Amino acid sequence: MRANFVYSNLNPCGGGERFTLVTMKALHEMGIDIELTTLEQPNLSKLENAFGKDLASVVKKIRRINILDMFDEQSIHRNLHQTNYDLIINTHGDIDPYFHSSLNANNMIVYCHYPSAKLLLENEDNEYLTYHLKIGRLQYRIEPRIGVTTQIVYKNPTQMASQMVESMFTDPGKHNFDYENSKKEYVNWVKKAFDSMIRNSFLMTNSNYSKAAIQKEYGTNNDILVLSPPVDVDTIISKIKIEQRFDSSLSSQVNYSDENGILVICRIEPSKRIENAIYLAKILKERKIKTKLNIAGSLEPFYQDYYHDLLQLISKLDLSDTVKLHTDVSFEELIELMKKSKIFFHPREGEHFGMSIVEAMSAGLIPIVPTVGGQSEFVPVEYQYKSLEDASQIVSQLLTNMSKEEMIKESIKMRDIAKNFSETNYKRQFQLIVSRMLYNLECDHQYGFSSNSKIRNLFSAK
């Protein structure tokens, strides 16, 4: 059995990238050969730094990496027909258009975190077209040539020496190239590809919030399986003991003046609305609430300007002594930040699920999150805010009025909620879905029937 994973770029090292590695691991544990179709060569050292060597090691198990210049009809056709895949798994179904007439709900799983692409394409969002779809590469495309296969060489000879990279870049230089017309044609193709992919795949998403959005945007009532993404709660729980945060040196009222206090975890990019966390810190300072705010997340070169804007905003609001940005932190560094924090703040309204929120809850942090988004389905309502002023009041209440015993009790409550989203639970459910799909494929080949609707019914009944 062979599965082809589709993910444009694993290197940002955010929640979606971790989700993909865990899903790869789940299939590899089933004895299924895995390949990857992507637009960028995975940076193994960066993945190890962000997720730890154990999880990142699944990259070494990939039999072949197909690097495309773009997701387009010709490249996808070539990708599919070079290898006879039993299953296509697009774990970036909110961003990556990957469809071919041979794909359907029996041989393609699409995990769509949110109908982001449809909204971005309607606005011809330049960041999406440039950063994610690599539309700038259009000007280098001519008639496609046969892909050049090269071998990855790792420093460690025990790593997958047989792993191959399929390079599908086209030759540069095209005469009389009409970029604007080509861009228009490509965007139209992407829209059609997304529509076909959403309507013809075994579709999964992360929350009821995202499910409703997908159905609304695509005008369909097609079955969508809600399967919460995996979070490494077990490792975090093993490394962080809640009671140790509250030693005898603390008074009955929790004193945060020497603690970091509040933690934000998210990629450093505009869509995450990190400036909201900085404005919250300003409000808290004006309220004379003594606390520190740490913002930790991976930073891609594409978003350097946004990063510098955040630094300028911190300086402008005179918050350099209380707000600190941490970029590209390792997993161990993140654990240390969690140990020093008591509250987690999520700055973005409309989060699709919120893996970083669950991570923080597993560490015993109390999450303060917007009322709108997938996180509202598992974060207690008393910790949900409608405005930054509202959020500041919740934080103030926690930092000034909650006793040590009450804080420990709430921390344990948050950890118990987070346990529902363990990596083990996710892998078990995903493996069951794949097993039944492969069984259906076999039935379809032998007897001419399949029953994917029964798979959805099985999980929706839980």
CATH hierarchy, class of the largest domain: Alpha Beta
Largest sheet: 9 strands, mixed
What is the number of beta strands? 15
CATH topology name of the largest domain, in short, is Rossmann fold
Distance between the termini: 29 Å
Put simply, the count of helices is: 17
Secondary-structure arrangement, i.e. CATH architecture of the largest domain? 3-Layer(aba) Sandwich
Q: Strand pairing plus helix content: what structural class?
A: alpha/beta
- Are there runs of 5+ residues with pLDDT below 50, and where? 142-162, 168-174, 248-258, 458-462
Q: State the fourth-level CATH superfamily of the largest domain.
A: Glycogen Phosphorylase B
Look at the structure and give the mean pLDDT: 87
Please state roughly what percent of the residues sit in beta strands, choosing from under 5%, 5-15%, 15-25%, 25-35%, 35-45% or over 45%.
Answer: 5-15%
Helix content: 40-55%
* Shape, principal axes of CA atoms: globular
Count of domains:
2
How would you write the strand order of the largest sheet?
A: 6-7-3-2-1-4-5-8-9
